């Protein structure tokens, strides 16, 4: 199933300390919103999606020689799971809005 992800990195944005970190987060956001991803199941509201593979794809595409280094920088302020809070079905894909602001109980 093709999905389009609209992430809200509110927590990540609150943890940013440098301009370089802001550029990395903005680049990841643009990659997520501008790419269709194959996802094995329909995500539902309240579920978590793992974006670690998406982050690897982004790093390999835009930072070929330093993908691991870029991911290590992202881990400081980006969670690898996002909580789905809205799902919209279209004919050829599903659009999901998700956030990194959630509480682990």
Q: What is the string of helix and strand elements? A: EHHEEHHEE
Task: Label the overall shape.
Answer: globular
Give the count of helical stretches: 4
Radius of gyration: 14 Å
Q: How much helicity do the residues have?
A: 25-40%
| Strand portion | 25-35%
**Number of DSSP E strands:** 5
Unreliable spans: none
Strand order of the biggest β-sheet: 2-1-5-4-3
Q: What topology emerges from the helices and strands here?
A:
Elements: E1 2-8, H1 10-15, H2 19-33, E2 36-38, E3 48-50, H3 52-62, H4 67-74, E4 81-89, E5 94-99
Parallel strand pairs: 1-5
Antiparallel strand pairs: 1-2, 3-4, 4-5
Task: Give the structure's gist in a few sentences.
The chain is an alpha+beta fold. It is built from 4 helices and 5 strands; from the N terminus they run E-H-H-E-E-H-H-E-E.
């Amino acid at each position: 199933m093709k999905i389009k992800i609209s992430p809200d990195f509110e927590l990540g944005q609150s943890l940013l300390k440098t301009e370089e970190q802001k550029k990395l987060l903005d680049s990841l956001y643009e990659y997520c919103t501008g790419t269709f991803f194959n996802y094995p199941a329909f995500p539902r509201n309240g579920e978590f999606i793992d974006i670690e593979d998406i982050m690897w794809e982004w790093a390999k595409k835009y930072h070929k020689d330093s993908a691991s280094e870029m991911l290590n920088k992202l881990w400081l302020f980006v969670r690898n799971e996002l909580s789905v809070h809205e799902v919209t079905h279209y004919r050829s894909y599903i659009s999901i809005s998700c956030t990194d602001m959630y509480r682990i109980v």
